[in-house]
């Protein structure tokens, strides 16, 4: 009844933007849907062959839009774009930090829209083929699916009612588990988006750290050379001061002092760059810690989903056993009715025989 394994929706592209929705009253003004920039992601569902745009703020879905071939993403300024969702009867607007981010989102929107168009064409071809096959199918299936009449026979009747009551209870339990599984899927989708964002940030940060580490050795050599040059200039300056020269030596002293100040300023700037790189390294370790936590939460969610699927399977098995038990009880009831009919017929014959005997 439910698949034993569900393939999750996979994020294929993510970007950060401020989300807006059109004012339903005026259809002109924009209403902010998020207080700050949030992650807006394209997801692909391989089972249903559907593309969606999803943005989650905390535990609330800000955008949950299925991409259709009729949608169009329009750039209204250098950093703002919008598209209309007819199913939700609204218009979404995205404000990006840079023009490049807007361009990347627009190109991905076109790509996903083309993919959705191809998916719809394939789905329509498949529906046409299924329709052609269904014409030749038996038309009396509905009669087979109708509920059998309730037999009013004392004894097995109570078991039949208990079976029907158990059927209703199991159906409600199955719907409850189904709802829990859906909530788990939303949480899992949120974690997928967070993990995808962390991985993207981690990749960029690792590239920056590799580049910085490649330059650290060169900067150290330059610092050592600058320090040697500074020491040499200081020695020359000390010698000049010791000689107490005047005239041209004063000019040389000024030049050496200026060069010394420039070198000290350069040394200070390099020290600040090294300090910045060290801070980035700490941020990189923090990002790795956040990524590990997201992976851990994702695995816990997958385990909970697996447990829910197992419970659904057990519920389906119990429901199947209950239906078999009900069918068996109906067979017993039918057999009892047949036996009662035979007994009634025999009693009727006996009554007629007794009447004839009394008449004689």
Which features would summarize this protein structure in a list?
4 helices; single chain; alpha+beta; PH-domain like; 360 residues
Structure, explained:
The chain is an alpha+beta fold and 360 residues long. The chain has four helices and eight strands. Strands 1, 2, 3, 4, 5, 6, 7 and 8 form an eight-stranded antiparallel β-sheet that branches. Helix 3 (156-243) runs antiparallel to helix 4 (248-359). Residues 1-6 and 136-161 have low confidence and may be disordered.
List the helices and strands and how they pair.
Elements: E1 10-22, E2 30-32, E3 38-45, E4 50-57, E5 60-66, E6 74-75, E7 80-85, E8 90-95, H1 99-135, H2 141-145, H3 156-243, H4 248-359
Helix pairs in contact: 3-4
On the 0-100 scale, what is the average pLDDT? 78
CATH topology of the domain at 11-127: PH-domain like
Contiguous uncertain segments of 5+ residues: 1-6, 136-161
CATH class of the domain at 11-127: Mainly Beta
Backbone shape: elongated
> Given the structure, what is the number of helices?
4
Number of strands: 8
> What class, by secondary structure content?
alpha+beta
Please report which band the strand proportion falls in: under 5%, 5-15%, 15-25%, 25-35%, 35-45% or over 45%. 5-15%
Report the radius of gyration as a whole number of Å.
Answer: 39 Å
Supply the CATH architecture of the domain at 11-127. Roll
Topology as a string of helices (H) and strands (E): EEEEEEEEHHHH
Span from first to last CA? Answer: 69 Å
Assigned CATH superfamily of the domain at 11-127:
Pleckstrin-homology domain (PH domain)/Phosphotyrosine-binding domain (PTB)
What composes the largest sheet?
Answer: 8 strands, antiparallel
How much helix is in the residues?
A: 55-70%
């Amino acid at each position: 009844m439910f698949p034993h394994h569900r393939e999750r929706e996979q994020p294929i592209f993510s970007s950060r933007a401020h989300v807006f929705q059109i004012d339903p009253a005026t259809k002109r003004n924009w209403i902010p849907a998020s207080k700050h920039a949030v992650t807006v992601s394209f997801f692909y569902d391989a089972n249903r062959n559907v593309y969606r745009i999803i943005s989650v703020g905390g535990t609330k879905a800000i955008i949950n839009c299925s991409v259709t071939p009729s949608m169009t993403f329009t750039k209204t300024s250098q950093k703002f774009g919008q598209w209309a969702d007819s199913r939700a009867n609204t218009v979404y607007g995205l404000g990006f930090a840079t023009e490049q981010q807007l361009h990347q989102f627009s190109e991905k929107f076109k790509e996903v829209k083309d993919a959705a168009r191809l998916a719809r064409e394939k789905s329509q071809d498949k529906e046409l083929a299924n329709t052609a096959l269904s014409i030749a199918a038996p038309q009396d299936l509905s009669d087979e699916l109708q509920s059998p009449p309730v037999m009013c026979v004392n004894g097995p009747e109570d078991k039949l009612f208990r079976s029907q009551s158990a059927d209703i209870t199991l159906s409600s339990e199955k719907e409850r588990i189904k709802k829990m599984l859906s909530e788990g899927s939303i949480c899992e989708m949120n974690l997928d988006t967070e993990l995808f964002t962390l991985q993207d940030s981690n990749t960029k940060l690792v590239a920056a750290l590799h580049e910085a580490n490649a330059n650290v050795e060169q900067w150290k050599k330059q610092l050592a050379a600058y320090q040697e040059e500074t020491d040499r200039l200081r020695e020359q300056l000390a010698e000049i001061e010791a000689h107490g020269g005047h005239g041209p030596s004063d000019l040389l002293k000024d030049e050496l002092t200026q060069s010394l100040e420039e070198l000290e300023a350069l040394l200070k700037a390099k020290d600040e760059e090294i300090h910045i790189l060290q801070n980035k390294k700490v941020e990189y370790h923090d990002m790795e810690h956040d990524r590990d936590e997201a992976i851990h939460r994702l695995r816990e969610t997958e385990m909970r989903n697996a447990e829910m699927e197992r419970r659904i399977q057990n519920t389906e098995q119990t429901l199947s056993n209950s239906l078999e038990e009900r069918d068996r009880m109906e067979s017993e009831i039918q057999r009892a009715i047949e036996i009662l009919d035979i007994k009634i017929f025999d009693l009727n014959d006996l009554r007629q025989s007794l009447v004839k005997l009394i008449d004689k």
